[in-house]
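Need tokens for this chain, all 147 residues.
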Amino acid sequence: MTEEKTIEEYQKEAEEYLNGWKRAKADFLNYQKQTEKDKAEWAMFSNASCVKAMLSILDSLEGAVVQFTGDHGHGIVKIRDQMIDVLRSMGVETIKSTGEPVNPEFHEVVAMEKSDEHASGLITKEAQRGYTMHGKVLRVAKVIVAE
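Here are the structure tokens for all 147 residues:
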């Protein structure tokens, strides 16, 4: 009788060890998946500070395109377009603003103005363009909204 009880105890103990091992294995696999996800995200956003610095240069190019026309303007447009292409290849996209309702996640209201073209609460102009990188906001758009 004591031998049967001992075998049952060993079976129960082995089952507990097996269940513990299964939980530990599942935890480890989840940890590995999270680590890989974190590495991939880190790689995607590791150059975000460099990209943010490039945005001010792009703003200057945009301003130069507006100011210059003719041969000088053509060269500046080409440089601006090249920069936009490079930024897009890095996952950078512009935030839609004009004509859109304000979304605090993407827009910062810097002024209000009367508008015959836009309904109250809609964005009439961008004071500064906003950008996302791989879906995350790099810089909010600074906008002017219809009263």
